[in-house]
Amino acid sequence: MDGAAAARPEAAAWVVDRPGPVGTTGAGPLVLERRARPVPGPGEILVEVEACGVCRTDLHLAEGDLPPRLPRCTPGHEVVGRVTALGPGAAGFAVGDRAGVAWLAGVCGRCRYCLGGRENLCPASTYTGWDRHGGYARTVTADARFAYRLPGGPPAEELAPLLCAGIIGYRALERAELPAGGLLGIYGFGASAHLTAQIALARGARLAVFTRGEAARDLARELGAGFAGDSYDPPPEPLDAAILFAPAGELVPVALAALDRGGTLAVAGIHLTDVPVLDYRRHLFQERTLRSVTANTRADGRAFLAEAARARPVVRVNRYPLERADTALADLAADRVTGVAVLVP
């Protein structure tokens, strides 16, 4: 630690020490340490964390499904907080503003993907909680151009999951190309799925949910699903579109077989176990489509946050103090979280 860092106050932050299985408290890959409070660089803001959502991507990072990019990285990319300092040239925020720090942390701005409105595919894209330290901490820095202005009224723990679970679910819903009034199938019903379901219902869709957890099925019915069954149950009728949120490749053929002619399955996760061999006539013939979802653009984020402000989805929050981030990840890994887990410093 250099002299300048040593002179700065320290604050608690979790880091991925050695990626591996998440277990009981004190036995997993996360380590709580004290670290010098960061200073915002050029174009950056410093955010005092009010809440940080616990995302399955954090679990993939901690367990090593995603190869580490930043040594001893602090996870967390669903951050809500107050701006406490501005770096040189930072624009769009003032000290005291509420800001959201999300998954997409930066792009090159020059490649054909960025120039063509598909910055989520930028080969030089960087991510909060993977390429730079995230929100399992008291403070976090972010490029002001990639942060979101947030309203001051709603509780921080209800806003935090919108910044990844909500945005990625929104992009998956767009990629699924659900026709107006169509039947949407959702496989897996965690943080992202329970928000996406409400957006789809607000648009006039019908909903069928397939998930292994009884508590998750109960939540799906409570939120308006017309059908809620096990992951392998047949749908009540052929699906017009489907989204796979569960990181289980074995469900890809199941969901494709449940689609009506011309239907689309969008796979929403950043990590998926191996997909079994597909039968062309059963799974893809009659113009069924299989699509992946890769991150999001800032335009996706702004569009979703505006739609969520109108639809006001219910966010089922499970609160954990920052000091129990390892427990939150273990509960997520063991399917003990119904809705979303959120760290509240």
Automatic annotation (TrEMBL):
EC number from the UniProt entry: 1.1.1.1
Highest taxon listed in the record's lineage: Bacteria
Residues in Enoyl reductase (ER) domain copies: 26-343
Coiled coil: none
Cofactor requirements of the protein: Zn(2+)
SMART domains: PKS_ER
The keyword Cytoplasm is assigned to this record: no
Pfam family, one: ADH_N
Identification of the protein by name: alcohol dehydrogenase
Protein's organism: Kitasatospora phosalacinea
Organism phylogeny: Bacteria, Bacillati, Actinomycetota, Actinomycetes, Kitasatosporales
